[in-house]
Design goal:
This protein is mainly alpha-helical. It contains 18 helices and 4 strands. The protein has a 4-stranded mixed beta sheet, with helices on one face. A hairpin with a 4-residue loop joins strand 3 and strand 4.
């Protein structure tokens, strides 16, 4: 490869990852960010890991399977260093690093590879945000890369031990391993000439996968952590990320574009097929159709396959005659142009991150004025709150324990059902308010219970288009 070709590849790579950084820049408004920050703050202050609930009055003292404790400390440390801006840069940087890692396996046309990477980043964007799961996304990419380059398998238990203390997404790693082993089994059956090597690899991988399953227990929660992925959450609560993608939303269309591009380019795939990679891609596509929270995993799994197949398609379709290369620019001029472009992209990326992290952009997504009213007037009694605002209240109004927050795995079906009964003005709504001795309510104005409360003697203390505060009259 000549020096000019290398320079073009470096320039395309730099531009691609700067654009990915910009595309994955998000205002830190994720509803779950706040309880992670609060937990990290408390753990650093108290010097111990939180394993019981101290944030709600409905589950206070109950065991909390906290699979995020290291990530929570990290997120709070980043916030302490530079506020929202540091968190925003961290989220964008994790995206760029994750897709850069994936790109290390690419061969072929750098422009096609750059296009595929940007499309994958746009596909992942709806679910990419300031939460520990982006660390899991990176580890999934790392695990897939290590399996592809056939690193020794003894490192698997070490990886899963670390993962079990960062985020509950380690279960995705086991799904990836299962798909990889399934691919090796198919290879054993269909490729006799590769049978011996594939069988040896499958046997080794299966052994270390089992060891890794026990390594998950090396965390403050022990093997109890294995219950986390299988705890059932009442999906009727309409937690957005657990719903199937709404393809009436334009931001979910890139997933379809990747899926259809895979179908269109599949006839040009190398033979025999890369069964393991195919099973991983199809498996995470299935999970994405079930729950949109898996869309980033599909993008990570699909992008190496899509790059290979699109490069193969272009190679087979391009004309034999090519245009004569144009004379290249002098080296000093190329150096200056590249330096200016690099500086411009870096400035644009950081400038965009700064604008996205302005406090006013965060505040407009939450009931800031209503919370200020509570701080000023300090009404007495327990608070019944919006599910979407639970984490934010833990962070901004810690003196008022919440009824519920985003830790859906910790709140049992009873508490979730009671929350639904109240906001939906169910037949037991008032009995639940009495049972928990609730005197203060902070909700979005659209809930059915709001009008009913006003008609039954509750006093409206504050109201705007975003929120309403009601108190029980004595």
């Amino acid at each position: 490869m000549d020096s000019e070709t290398k320079a073009i590849q470096r320039l395309v790579s730099l531009t691609t990852f700067a654009l990915i950084f910009i595309l994955l820049t998000r205002t830190p408004v994720d509803a779950d960010l706040w309880w992670h920050l609060r937990a990290g703050q408390v753990m650093l202050k108290q010097g111990q890991i939180l394993l019981t609930d101290i944030f709600s009055y409905t589950r206070t003292g109950a065991p909390w399977v906290n699979a995020f404790w290291v990530s929570e400390i990290l997120l709070y440390a980043l916030y302490s260093l530079g506020g929202y801006f540091t968190l925003t840069v961290f989220v964008s940087l994790m995206g760029a690093v994750t897709f850069q890692l994936i790109s290390r396996r690419f061969t072929g046309n750098p422009f096609i590879n750059g296009f595929v990477l940007i499309l994958a980043a746009v596909t992942a964007a709806p679910i990419w945000g300031p939460r520990p799961q982006i660390i899991s996304f990176f580890i999934v990419a790392l695990l897939d890369h290590w399996l592809a380059v056939k690193r020794p398998h003894w490192w698997l238990p070490l990886l899963f031990t670390v993962w079990a203390n960062l985020h509950g997404g380690w279960i995705w790693g086991f799904l990836l391993l299962i798909a990889h082993i399934a691919g090796l089994v198919v290879q054993i059956i269909t490729q006799p000439q590769e049978r011996s090597a594939a069988w040896q690899q499958a046997r080794s991988l299966l052994f270390w996968t089992v060891i890794s399953a026990f390594a998950i227990g090396i965390n403050p929660n022990g093997l109890t952590l294995w219950k986390l992925p299988f705890q059932q959450v009442d999906v009727s609560m309409q937690i957005q990320e657990w719903l199937s993608p709404d393809f009436h939303r334009l931001d979910f269309h890139p997933f379809l574009w990747m899926f259809f591009l895979l179908l269109l380019s599949s006839p040009f795939a190398a033979k025999p097929p890369a069964w393991g990679q195919l099973f991983k891609t199809l498996g995470f596509a299935y999970l994405t159709f079930v729950a949109q929270r898996n869309i980033a995993l599909f993008a990570i799994m699909a992008v190496p396959l899509l790059s290979d197949w699109m490069n193969a398609a272009i190679d087979s379709l391009r004309r034999e005659k090519r245009l004569s290369p144009r004379p290249s620019l002098p080296l000093p001029l190329r150096t200056v142009i590249n330096a200016v472009l690099g500086f411009s992209l870096a400035s644009a990326a950081l400038g965009n991150a700064y604008l996205a992290s302005l406090p006013e952009k965060v505040d407009k997504n939450y009931p800031v004025a209503a919370i200020e009213w509570i701080k000023t007037n300090q009404p007495t009694g327990r608070l019944f709150n919006s599910y979407n605002w639970g984490g934010y209240l833990l962070w901004t109004l810690p003196e008022y324990p919440v009824f519920i927050d985003g830790r859906a795995d910790m709140y049992d079906s009873k508490i979730i059902g009671q929350w639904q009964q109240v906001v939906g003005n169910g037949e037991n709504a008032y009995a639940i308010l009495d049972e928990w001795k609730i005197n203060l309510i902070l909700l979005e104005p659209h809930w059915e219970i709001v009008k009913s409360l006003q008609a039954n003697g509750w006093q409206v203390e504050y109201e705007d288009e975003k929120s309403i505060i009601l108190t029980r009259t004595q």
